[in-house]
Here is the input.
Amino acid sequence: QVQLVESGGGLVQAGGSLRLSCAASGRTFSLYTMGWFRQAPGKEREFVVAISWNGVSIYYADSEKGRFTISRDNAKNTVYLQMNSLKPEDTAVYYCAATLSWPSPTLSSYNYWGQGTQVTVSS
Here is the structure.
């Protein structure tokens, strides 16, 4: 069982940056692939990026390469999403999720989800 809690969301102007954190409970965090997803109003939840259990492999949605960076600290049971050059279209609720699969861009492969954190980018 893994419980996930996101933080770090907020309101930022276009061009700004935010770093999201996802803290996990449980001693098995280091076994899981961790992913970030987002859901904009009226849209389906979409994959953003995933990182392998050891942090060596990263899988990005094509649209986010270059602006978003995922990382993890297994000693702290935390995964991060650094978001730079934010755009109004990045406005969404951002979710972290955990799976034992790799690579994992699909929602259905994730077993555990956080409650989400709101990111709002103003123009």
User: Anything to note?
Assistant: The radius of gyration is 13 Å.
